[in-house]
Design a protein that fits this description.
Number of strands: 13
Number of domains: 1
CATH architecture: Alpha-Beta Complex
CATH superfamily: Spore Coat Polysaccharide Biosynthesis Protein SpsA, Chain A
Length: 271
């Protein structure tokens, strides 16, 4: 059973400048609700008991957002507003599940994951990347179902246009399990069209084994001087660890770019 999730939040959010020059991108509203709350709701609905946020000191406002009890209590005493009471109750529900870990140097997603090592209790954990929003179906829940069936790692997969494969991590697929699930042989980062082994792209939902920490702790920095989670996953595959690519149901929204952020707000407002 997957009980813990980690969410890397320490990134600078440069693709959403100028908004992120003073504001954490994860708190930017998407149809009136901070983006991070959609991710938290996905976790809670999937049965996750503890969510570990990896933030930097520059992202302290994320912690402040969930620990602003005095402000809410003061406003509620003055106004006794039902909507504000409901919002405060929701924040308290989230806060019970959240733990904060710090990554103060931008050394990549792999380094962020490594910061959580001493807090992960079970053999597997869930990781969600907050730029990737999946609506209309709970991707994490369906991945946990696959994990429970095979007791192995699972990564979210989505079919992309062959002409766009150079923008994605692309799965080299192995044995087919069923219509939505394949064992994978490898993950190729941003291949050319001619070298792409498939058109199935990696999306930001992962069920990873605790053993990945030993891989990350020995891993040398890659491109940009960062520790890349994909390199650690490739190392797991070389050691014959089984990983399943799960082609999820639901609709993918990219909230990490300005146009994607605008499109996400429009899409969700129509649901």
């Amino acid at each position: 059973m997957i009980k813990q999730a980690i969410i890397p939040l320490a990134g600078l959010g440069t693709r959403l400048l100028p908004l992120t020059s003073v504001f954490a991108k994860e708190l930017l509203p998407i149809n009136g609700k901070p983006g991070i709350e959609y991710i938290l709701d996905e976790c809670i609905d999937a049965g996750i008991k503890e969510v570990i946020f990896i933030i930097s000191k520059k992202k302290k406002m994320i912690k402040d957002y969930f620990y602003n009890d005095k402000f809410y209590k003061k406003i509620i005493r003055k106004k006794n507003d039902a909507r504000i009471k409901k919002e405060f109750s929701k924040i308290l529900k989230y806060k019970k599940r959240i733990k904060f870990v710090y990554q103060n140097q931008p050394l990549g997603t792999g380094d962020a994951v490594l910061k959580t090592k001493k807090y992960i209790k079970d053999d597997f954990f869930l990781m969600l990347l907050p730029d990737d929003l999946i609506i209309k179906n709970n991707c994490s829940k369906s991945m946990i179902s696959i994990h429970n069936r095979f007791n192995t790692s699972v990564m979210a997969s989505m079919n992309v246009n062959k002409r766009t494969v150079s923008r994605w991590g692309i799965f080299n697929l192995g044995k087919k399990i069923d219509k939505k699930n394949y064992f994978i042989n490898d993950v190729i980062e941003k291949p050319s069209i001619s070298n792409a082994p498939s058109s199935k792209a990696v999306i930001g939902r992962y069920i990873l084994p605790k053993t990945i920490f030993s891989k990350l702790s020995k891993q040398k920095p890659g491109k940009g001087g960062e520790i890349h989670i994909t390199d650690a996953i490739q190392s797991l595959l070389k050691d014959k660890n089984k990983i399943i690519a799960h082609n999820f149901s639901g609709e993918y929204l990219d909230c990490g770019t300005m146009q994607g952020y605008i499109n996400s707000t429009i899409k969700i407002s129509k649901i």
